[in-house]
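Q: Start with the shorter request: fold the first protein.
A: Done. Sequence, then structure:
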Amino acid sequence: MGNSIYHINKGINKSIEFKGLKAQYIWYFGGGIVVLMILFSMMYFIGLPSFISLGIIGIAGTVMAVKIYKMSHKYGEHGMMKELAKRQLPTVVKTQSRRIYKMAK
């Protein structure tokens, strides 16, 4: 029973990151890819030429990737949820009576 060497896991409580995408944006990117694959298969079954379908999917995929990477960079791990929560807060609370102040005694 000599000296024991323990390795410390320094990645505890860090958010998941994959090629620059953080946290929930990985799921958004995966969902976008699934939607693009379904769209491509629908265009294929309709009978659109493959090159036109690939062009449309390529452009849509590029726009999707750029938008998701911008959101990931701008908002970070929790920023988008905080931004959406901030939009739901009322700017002004109006009351017509002073009854609520009398009850606070």
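Q: Next, the second protein, separately.
A: Sequence, then structure:
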Amino acid sequence: MDATTVLASVSGSIATVGYGLAAIGPAIGVGIVVGKTIEGVARQPELAGRLQVLMWIGIAFTEALAFIGIATAFIFGY
């Protein structure tokens, strides 16, 4: 068994591995957004409502990266 045979057998799951790696970025991003919102509410509780709205918008934009990652996996993987 040579290197090209091994590469050919692994290439079927490259899209799955790629999406798994692409999901790490949005997960870290959501953690940062939520953490910073909690810090902001702790500093100024009267802004909790506005910060929560901004947090949900930030989470939506961050999760859009995950959707782009899964779409890319389907486009280039199959």
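Q: Describe the second briefly.
A: The mean pLDDT is 82. The longest helix spans residues 48-77.
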